[in-house]
Amino acid sequence: MRKFATVREAIETWGKGWKTMITTIIILLLAWSLSSVIKELGTSRYLVDLLSQSTPKIVLPAAIFYAGFVYQLFLPAPATVRWAF
Questions:
Q1: Distance between CA atoms of 17 and 40, rounded to whole angstroms?
Q2: CA atoms within 13 A of residue 60's CA, in its CB half-sphere
Q3: Which of 2, 28, 38, 51 could crosslink 43 through cysteines, CB 3.0-4.6 Å?
Q4: What are phi and psi for residue 18, nearest 5 degrees?
Q5: Whether the model pTM is above 0.70
Q6: What is the pLDDT along the chain (85 residues), one digit of tens a residue?
Q7: What secondary structure letter does DSSP report for 83?
Q8: Dist CA 46 CA 30 (whole Å)
Q9: Residues 6+ apart with CB under 8 A from 84
């Protein structure tokens, strides 16, 4: 026989789910806002002009990979991924 949750347990579970969703929604809103600001400022065009004249094309993929690696090292890992480290 399957046991069903009580109304109280269902409401508590729903509230816990919304707590995690709010964090995700805030992160998405901040990412979209940052994207809009970067687009309005023309940051991509500025970086292309700046880096295309002084950086060899072969170095750029390695530099992006290295920057992502260093960025990942200093961010806390989510609880579901911590076991890998």
A1: 35
A2: 10
A3: 38
A4: -65, -30
A5: no
A6: 677 878 898 899 889 888 888 988 999 999 999 999 999 999 989 988 888 888 888 888 898 899 888 888 887 666 555 444 4
A7: G
A8: 22
A9: 77
